[in-house]
Amino acid sequence: DPRVAGQRVFGLRRGLVNLADELKEHTAQLHKLAERHPMQRALMTGRLDHSAYRRYLEQLYLLHAGIDLAWDRLSVELRAGFEPPGAIRRATLFDLSQGDDLSECLSICEPVSALIHQLNDGLDPAAKVLGARYVFEGACNGGVYIGRAMRKNFGENCPSHTHLNPYGDEQVARWQRFRSALIDLVLSDEERN
Fold first, then answer.
1. What angle do CA 111, 113, 118 make, to 5 degrees?
2. Is 11 exposed, middle or buried (0-12, 13-18, 19+ CB in 10 A)?
3. pTM of the prediction?
């Protein structure tokens, strides 16, 4: 029992079984808000102009670069049960490179900068970084449907959107492995808080 060794499975204090369940509970409302966000609706209906989509991709790329950097700073022991991140960042960079000149410098917006700073500030990094990965790895599940709607509604002018489903046919299996690693994860009280 890990609690005997001074460790606790993330989430037990609130009566939840594991970190995966706790993250699901704590992100449920945000998930609903994100689904209803005007940006998502514009993507799905084909009403988002290409310059706004590029700005969206730029911020998404910079955010994922920050998440990946924060991940690399976690202990090797904590990362051991998880597949390394990077696929979403690489797919976003691919989407950015389609039809656009990437020689210009990407400019980060304040909300993305603040989030990256929080992930890398050294205070409770495990919970923050795992939470961020949970949100974006999970978002790939819905990305399949958003991509399908984009192709239908943008038609032949559909912009590249591989970042929505960077794992292709492996998405479901990858998500299950990620959730299993969260379920099996044991964090110390210090890492948990």
1. 95
2. buried
3. 0.83
